[in-house]
Write a structure and sequence with these properties.
The complex is a heterodimer. By secondary structure, chain A is of the alpha+beta class. Helices cover 19% and strands 47% of the residues of chain A. Chain A has 3 helices and 16 strands. In chain A, a hairpin with a 2-residue loop joins strand 2 and strand 3. The termini of chain A are far apart. Helices cover 34% and strands 23% of the residues of chain B. By secondary structure, chain B is of the alpha+beta class. Classes of the chains: A alpha+beta, B alpha+beta.
Chain lengths: 391, 168
């Protein structure tokens, strides 16, 4: 009995001691868990802080990468083209155009834009080229739909006159119709107004300096020779221009320009007032890889002197289908006719058939090659090679 | 002269919202995948990612991460790309690896704003990315807005590629 009691007491004592030990261990574990929870919370906090630091470091690095400098609102761009012409008349290499753009945004709705061009690589007395300031104007956005510009700007006419960076068109040289009839590149000084009542529809109006053509000799009343380039330009008589343009369907552009010149001779003595009207219309349609450009332009000039040499009417048109085989390479064909003496009955019409390719090394760098066959008033065949860029 | 003044005043009076901003990021996200997805996620980019992005954009990319919103298999990306001189902010909503909607949220260029209109942006709907990271459908351009068109096309390709990263 005593023995049993002793065993029972021992067991109870043992259990009690075990229970006491277990209780101690539980307390210990709770303490450890509580401490670990504290550590976890501290780690969570540090992780949050680290994430915040990483985030702000990323923000700092990104903002440094796109740091706004003193010139953040000033932009520089440009384009250029080197040509090699090999035809019946000449074999010539020419850095035809080297152009730099400078622009500055004064505020969100007031900006300046300019285009400075060196033509034919070298300028000066007796040299082949010239330095030209082709654009320098201040543009003000009246609201989201209307803007105005003052200064010297490209005339709102044709396809190439306002957009002529080499990667944007086919052919090494610009087409002869826009060159000789419009006459691109054509800029004047004055005031212009642009209104966009709805997406894809735009109206332009401009009052500018006018052309000043010679009144005698082989260049008399020839439109291209009337460009004064705003260098101490005779502003006796002005020009009034209006354009409507529709681009409301992707791939389609339809536009028409009408201009009235008060006197192409700028009041020259001894000749009639040569007031003139220019009408130009063009369409561009692009569907997938296929594109078609077509343009018509004509001048009607008053005055006996212009009429006497058939320059009272000067016309031209061209049509140009093209196809992009992929992002890199495209081909075109063009047929063009123009006549600066369309008012007479002589064979003075120039005809040109050309075809060629554009190969894009980069979306802004293009290699060009084309073949041209000129007939009518000009009889000449040959090929042209070119490299052009824009940035 | 009076007529000219009247026309000018009329044109000034038709002024719309703040210049160039048509929709905020939050509005675009809310309009596309709903308000319950407003907390954005962050996709961090490594060097390989940046190389692919540079290839898509044809210029280097200096951002370290891109913010996006996700709900089930839909994602929304707010991206910026320069047209000619200024960044254009574009929202792209992707559903099942296909562009459900693309909108210009802010346009800051002085030319080429035709790209912000629906007649142009609806062309991107249903577009997917092929193996060369090009869109599977042709986008017809707008003459005179070539660079803006190019910028939007690049953004569409980039959004689809980023979407593929978070939803492989």
């Amino acid at each position: 009995m005593i023995k049993k009691t002793l065993i029972a007491s021992t067991l109870v004592g043992l259990f009690a001691s075990n229970a006491a030990m277990a209780n101690d261990e539980t307390q210990e574990l709770r303490k450890i868990i509580a401490e670990q929870q504290k550590v976890l919370k501290a780690l969570e906090k540090r992780l949050d802080e680290t994430e915040k630091k990483v985030e702000s470091t990323a923000v700092q690095i990104e903002s440094t990468a796109s740091e706004k400098s003193l010139f953040a609102n000033t932009s520089i761009g440009g384009y250029g083209e080197l040509h090699y012409n090999n035809n019946d008349n000449k074999k010539e290499v020419d850095f035809h155009r080297f152009v730099l753009f400078f622009g500055h945004e004064f505020t969100d709705n007031l900006r300046f834009f300019s285009e400075l061009e060196l033509e034919h690589s070298i300028a000066g007395e007796g040299k082949a080229g010239e330095i030209e300031l082709e654009q320098a104007y201040v543009e003000y956005d009246i609201n989201q739909k209307a803007s105005t510009k003052l200064g010297m700007f490209l005339m709102p006419v044709g396809i190439l006159n306002e957009t002529h960076e080499p990667p944007t068109f086919f052919g090494v040289e610009r087409n002869p119709v826009e060159k000789n009839i419009i006459p691109a590149t054509w800029w004047e000084a004055g005031a212009a107004f642009n209104y966009r009542p709805m997406g894809g529809l735009s109206f332009d109006a401009a009052i500018t300096s006018g052309l000043n053509t010679p009144t005698e000799g082989s260049k008399a009343y020839k439109i291209r020779d009337g460009r004064q380039k705003v260098g101490k330009a005779n502003a006796e008589d002005l020009a009034f221009t209006g354009r409507v343009k529709y681009t409301g369907i992707p791939g389609l552009e339809l536009a028409a320009t009408l201009q009235y010149q008060q006197d192409l001779a700028q009041g020259a003595a001894g000749v009639d007032t040569a007031d003139a009207t220019m009408f130009e219309a063009h369409g561009i349609y692009q569907h997938k890889a296929f594109s078609l450009r077509a343009l018509y332009a004509r001048w009607d000039i008053n005055g006996d002197e212009a009429q006497a040499i058939g320059r009272d009417e000067q016309t031209g048109w061209y049509v140009e289908p093209s196809y992009m085989f992929n992002e890199k390479i495209g081909a075109f064909a063009r047929y063009a006719e123009y006549d600066n003496n369309a008012g007479n009955n002589d064979e003075t019409k120039h005809k040109q058939t050309s075809f060629g390719i554009n190969y894009y090394l980069h979306e802004n760098v293009v290699l060009k090659a084309d073949w041209e066959d000129n007939s009518g008033a000009t009889d000449m065949q040959g090929f042209n090679l070119g490299v052009g860029y824009q940035f | 002269m009076r007529i000219l003044l009247t026309v000018l005043l009329f044109m000034i009076s038709v002024s719309a919202a703040a210049k160039g901003t048509y929709l905020t990021s939050e509005q675009f996200v809310s309009n596309t995948i709903g308000t319950d997805a407003l907390k954005p996620k962050m996709l961090w980019l490594d060097k390989t990612d940046k190389d692919v992005i540079s290839d898509i954009l044809s210029h280097s990319y200096n951002r370290m991460r891109v913010r996006y919103w996700q709900k089930d298999n839909q994602t929304v990306w707010i991206l910026e790309e320069i047209g000619k001189e200024k960044p254009i902010t574009v929202g792209v909503h992707i559903n099942n690896r296909m562009i459900a909607d693309l909108k210009v949220l802010a346009f800051r260029e002085s030319r080429g704003d035709e790209v912000r209109h629906e007649f142009f942006t609806t062309q991107f709907q249903q577009a997917t990315l092929n193996e060369e990271n090009m869109l599977n459908q042709h986008i017809d351009g707008i003459t005179g807005a070539t660079m803006s068109v190019r910028a939007l096309t690049k953004v569409a390709r980039l959004a689809l590629w980023l979407n593929k990263k978070v939803q492989p």
